[in-house]
Amino acid sequence: MSDEPNKGLLSPLRRKLLMGMAAVPAITMLPRASFAQAPATSAVNTTGLAVTDTEVTVGILHSATGTMAISETGSIEAEKLAIEQINAAGGVLGRKIKFIQEDGASDWPTFAEKAKKLLVNDKVAAIMGCWTSASRKAVLPVMEQYNGMLYYPTFYEGLEQSKNVIYTGQEATQQILAGLNWIAKEKGAKSFFFIGSDYIWPRTSNKIARKHVENVLKGKVVGEEYYPLGNTQFNSVINKIKLTKPDVIFTDVVGGSNVAFYKQLKAAGIDLSKQALLTISVTEDEIDGIGGENIAGAYACMKYFQSLDNPNNKAFVPAFKKAWGEKTVIGDVTQAAYLGPWLWKLTVEKAGSFDVDKIAAASPGVEFKGAPEGYVRIHENHHLWSKTRVGRAKLDGQFELIYETADLVEPDPFPKGYQ
Amino acid sequence: MFGDYSLGDLGSIFVMQGFAGLILFSVYVLMALGLAIIFGQMGVINMAHGEFMILGAYVTWMTSNVFQSYLPGLFSGYFFLAMILAFVASGALGMLVEWVLIRHLYKRPLDTLLATWGLSLMLQQAYRSVFGAREVGVELPQWMLGSLHVTDSIEVPINGVFVMCLTVLITLSVAYVMYMSRWGRQVRAVVQNRIMAGAVGINTEKVDRYTFGLGCGIAGIAGSAFTMIGSTGPTSGQLYIVDTFLVVVFGGAASLLGTIASAFSISQTQSTLEFFMSGSMAKVLTLLAVVGILMLRPQGLFALKVRK
Question: Is residue B304 one of the residues assigned to a domain?
Fold first, then answer.
C-alpha cells in the first residue's frame, strides 16, 4: 500500500528521464554553437516535411517486383549508393539522409498510390523514382497536387516539364540528334530503317528521328516498324531489312524483345561490324541479357557508358561494384539515377532549405561536378545539360567510346519543328 | 513496294520468308505442345506454363555456367544435356505442383486458372529472388550461332533449323507416347471417362501426375530451346503465354493434330502479314482472324468427338 504512491511518483519521473534521453535530438533544436553548420529545423523546413535536427527522409519509388524490376533494380542500387556516400560526406545541411523504399510493382496505379503515401504519410522531402514514362505520368499529378519533388532517371520522349520533377536522364532530342548527325557524317548514311517497340517512347523518338533524317540530313527512311511489347519473333522484319538494305538500322526495341531481336539478327547472318546499327535502348544492363557476342559492333547513343574514362567515373564504378557485386554492370539510367540524390543535396544546400518550392526555384543552374558522366547542370526547364556520346558494343558487354559532343547539349523537351 | 528490287532478290526473300514462317511454326508447336497435353488432355488451365518454360531456360543457363567453369572442352555439346536437365527439372516441379495444388482442383477446372496464375506470380518472384531481377545471358556454343549460306543471298539461321528439328523430334515422341504406348492409352482413357477408367483398374491419380509432369517437362525443353532466340529473365515466361493459349484453343483443345494445324495456320498468317505491314498490325489482324473463326467454330479447328 505504501509502495503504491511511490511507484506512482517515481514512474513518471523515470519516464520523463527516458523521454529526455530519447529526445536528445529535440534538444538540438535550440540554436547551439556546436551545431552551427546545421541550421535550425524550423528555418529549413517550413512546410512540415520529415526533417529533424539529425535526419531528413527521402523516398525511393521503383519496381522491385514485376516486369520492370529487370530495369529498375540498377536505379535502386545507384540511389542507395548515392545516399550512402552523401551521408558519409556529412549529409545534407548537417542531416543524414534516411530513405523509405516503396515498391511500384511494375503497376502504374500502384506507383501513384505509393507516391501519395510517401508524400502524405511519410512527408518525404524528395522522391527518387519511376522508370517508365507510364509510371511517371501516373505519379505526376500526385507530385503536383501534394507539391512533392521527383528525381526521374530515365531517358524519355520529352514533351513534359513540371515544377515538381527534375529529369536526370536525357529527353529525346538530346539523345537522338547528335547520334544521327554522327552516323550520317561518319558512315555517309543516307537510308535508315526504324524498328521499335509499340508504345509512346519509341514512337515519339522515331518521329523526331524521322524529321531529322528527312529535313536536316536529307536522307530517307526506308522502313518504320513497330512490334508489340514482348514480341519474340523478328524474322520477318529482318527479311525486310535484308531486302531494303538500309545504311543504318535505328532501333528502340525494349525489354525481352531486345534480346530476341539481336539474337535473331545475328542468327540471320547480319554482321553488325558491316551493317551499321544505332540503338537508343540498349545499355550495359540490357547487354547482360542479350549477350555481348550477339550485339558486338552495334552503336549505342546515350550520355553515359560504364567504360568512360574520367576521374569521377573511375571512382564511381569501383564504388558501385563494391556495394553491389563485382559482376554488376552500370547502364545509362543507373548513372542518371545516381545523379538524383546528389543534385537534390546540392540544390538543398543552394536553397538553404528543404522546402519544395525553394528547391524547385533554386534548381536551375545547379551544377554537379562529380557526376560519373562528367559535368551536368540543371536547365531552367528542369532537364539536364549533358553531353551525348556514341559507343560501340564490344564482346565483353562493354561499350567503347567512339564519339562525344564537344559541348553540353541543351535539353529541349518541346522541340520546334519536330512535333 | 517491290518495284525497286531485282527478281533474284525477291526470290531469295521469298525463300527466307518461307523459312521465317516455318521457324515461327516450330516455335509455336514447341511452346504449345506441353500446354496441349495439360489443357487439352486434363482440362487444367495452366497459367504458369510460361514459368515452367523459364525454369528450363534457367536450367540451361546454369548448365552452361557449369560447363564453362569445369568442362570447357565439352562446352560445344552442353546444350543437349541442358535440355534433358530442363525436362527433368520442369517435369519434377510439375509433378510436385500437381500433387500439392492441382489434384485438389480437378472437379473445378475454372479454379485452376486462378490457382496457376497465383503459382506463376510465385514462381516469377522466386526466380527474381534466386537468380536476380536482371536478365541472364545464356552463352551458346559457337556452332549454334550464325547462319547457313545456301546461296549468296539466301541465309538460313542455324538456331531456327535446330528448333525445327527439335520440334519434329518432340512432336513425334509425344505422338508415339500418347497414341502407341500403353501409358498413352491410359491417359486417353482417363480423359474420356475418369470414373470408368478408374473402375477398370487404371490408377488415375498416377496417370494425372505423370501427364502433368510430362506437359511441364516439355515446356521445360521449349524454354531451354528458346534461350537461343529469346530472353531469359524472371518474367520472360509471360511473353509466351498468350500465344500458347491461342494456339491450343484455336486448334481444338483435346487434339494434338489440331494444335499442329493451328500453329501452322497462325504462324503462316502472321509471318506473311508481318512482311507486308507493321508487326503490331499483323498481330491485330491475326488475332481478329482467330476470333472470327472461333466464333464460327467454338470447339476449335479439330475437335474430338466424344459422347458426353
Answer: no
How many residues belong to chain B? 308
Contact A235 B20 (CB under 8 A): yes
Q: What is the mean pLDDT of residues A364-374?
A: 95
Is residue A96 scored above 70 in pLDDT? yes
Residue B49, pLDDT above cutoff 70: yes
Residue of B75, B134, B267, B277 to mutate for A, most A C-beta atoms under 10 A: B134
Question: What ipTM, to 2 d.p.?
Answer: 0.81
Residue B7 resides in a domain? no
Tell me, yes or no, if the pTM score tops 0.90.
Answer: no
Counted residue by residue, chain A has a size of 419
- Within-domain flag for B220: yes
A300, β-bridge pairs? A279, A391
Annotate A82-101 with b (16+ C-beta within 10 A) or e (fewer). Answer: bbebbbeeebbbbbbbbbbb
**Residue A31: per-residue pLDDT:** 42
Q: Which of B292, B279, B246, B83 is nearest to B167 (CA)?
A: B83
Contacts (Cβ under 8 Å, ≥6 apart) of A142? A112, A115, A116, A119, A148
Number of domains making up chain B: 1
Residue ranges of B 69-98 with Cβ closer than 8 A to chain A: none
For B170-200, b/e burial (b = at least 16 CB within 10 A) is bbeebeeebeeeeebebbbbbbeeeeebeee
Asked if B280 and A203 touch (Cβ cutoff 8 Å), the reply is no
Q: Which domain, by its residues, includes B147?
A: 34-241
Q: Mind listing the pLDDT tens digit for each residue in B197-213? A: 999 999 989 999 999 99
Please tell me if residue A258 touches chain B, with a CB cutoff of 8 Å: yes
pLDDT at A305: 96
